[in-house]
Amino acid sequence: MRFEASRAAVATAAILVPWRTANRTLPGISDVGLESKILHVVSLTLMSPYPLLIVSMCIFVCPGWAQSGKVARGKYLAEEVARCQECHTPKLPDGQFDKDKWMKGAVMNIQPIEPIKGWHKTSPDLTRPGKLWAKWGELAFIKFLTTGNAPNGKPAEAPMPTYRMSQDDAEAIVDYLKSLK
């Protein structure tokens, strides 16, 4: 069985396990007279149980943190960059977004001066319980965000902009949308 530690685990081990270099001389350190304490990654088998427990925790828990980070990145991209809520979330009478219906689709509050063929008057629900998820599925959402084309091979109709995101950005947004209830 091959064991690979994540970067977080190795970094944690490097921080937690000081290697004392007493009675050792290292080039450049002994000349300057710095305290002889150097952080060093040591074999996990030589560690005491407490640091080993913390490193093990990072190995198994950090992937969950990374996933949370991906959802947070997707939230940032969807809400601050693409501004999806502008069309996909209804507004209250005071103009604020209805947080109870976040990304659940809305009646468009904009329309063109001249008629545009295919213009949508409503936006679909982007949350997982919505009909669009049942119709498209996760992979189609990712493909839509990376290619700009719907599953039928055609670009989205107005007023939806055509996005051509990186695979990572598209996956992050889809993970965020999946996290919405």
Task: Explain how this protein is built.
With 181 residues, the chain is mainly alpha-helical. The protein folds into two domains: 69 residues, no CATH class; 98 residues, no CATH class. The protein is 44% helix and 6% strand. It contains seven helices and four strands. The strands form two sheets. Strands 1-2 form a two-stranded antiparallel sheet. The chain has a two-stranded antiparallel ribbon with strand order 3-4.
Task: Please tag this protein with its features.
4 strands; two-stranded antiparallel ribbon; mainly alpha; 2 domains; 6% strand; disordered N terminus; 181 residues
What's the helical proportion of residues? 40-55%
Radius of gyration: 25 Å
Number of helices: 7
**Secondary-structure element series:** HEHEHHEEHHH
Strand content: 5-15%
Overall pLDDT metric:
76
Shape: globular
How is this fold's topology laid out?
Layout: H1 7-16, E1 18-20, H2 29-32, E2 37-39, H3 49-81, H4 85-88, E3 106-107, E4 122-123, H5 131-136, H6 138-147, H7 167-179
Antiparallel strand pairs: 1-2, 3-4
Helix pairs in contact: 1-3, 3-7, 6-7
At a glance:
Helices cover 44% and strands 6% of the residues.
